[in-house]
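Hey, can you fold this one?
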Amino acid sequence: MIVDRGDDRAVVRLCAEALDLPEDAGEAGALVERLTSPPEGRVTVRLTALGEDGGPTGVVFGSISDADPLLGHVELIAVRPDRRREGIGRELLAAAERELAARGAQRIRIGGNPPCYVWPGIDVRYTPAVCLAQRAGYERTNTAWNMTADLTGGWTGAEADEERLDGAGVKVMRAGPDTPEWVRGIWGNGWAWEVAQSLDRDGAGCWVAVRDGEILGFAAYGANRPSWFGPMGTAPAAEGLGVGRVLLRRCLADQRADGHSTAQIGWAGPVAFYAKTVGARLERIFWIYTKQL
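Sure. Predicted structure:
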């Protein structure tokens, strides 16, 4: 039986069992909490498959954002390991498609709905999820990736970069409550929402670079889950100062202090920058699938 309800604690336990990659299992609680606390302008769907004992055997999360009301997202499907190969995932996906279509979706994407998301798409190591998408008629339409930063060592050039900024009159400090609005003015509502989340959540934070009272750049972490870094941006007028390098390292140092040995740079863009600055490596690869209803 599939219902549009379910005990949050039981769903978290199910996700912790089903998401068997070490990068995900330990943060199941954060993932469920994020998906059930989305930004404004988003319609969310959560469907739970119940077993004969009334406990959850699977769950699916979906959403539609007002940024594209014709595009539905399936953001997370999890099936209890001992109940796999029974068609539960297929039933949950079909039910999510029906619910999203009833809310106006004409296309469905198995992938993240920024700025509040679990992954960009399906981690290629989740083979059953890839097989499910293909059997359900989805086509692979894009590829995304994360980079992994090792937090156990130091970073070459960090001290020199800090001194260079200080010599240019740039101060690096914790972000204040005005930062989200500044981010919104340059990068829009999505990143502004993530920065606001980073200021309000445990295990999250944000740094800014300031000169003469003007913000030049920002970097945030923990907006979607504690071990993930991002977003980060430098104002066009400040490009070339090395602001991003210092802000990135400040965030990663915070995450190290919080007990993380690695950080995930989510949906990473400038690969060369992250590789050179903190020795980050490409690691998690995600396939994004789309289906026309």
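DSSP finds ten helices and 13 strands in the chain. Let me know if you want another pass with a different chain boundary.
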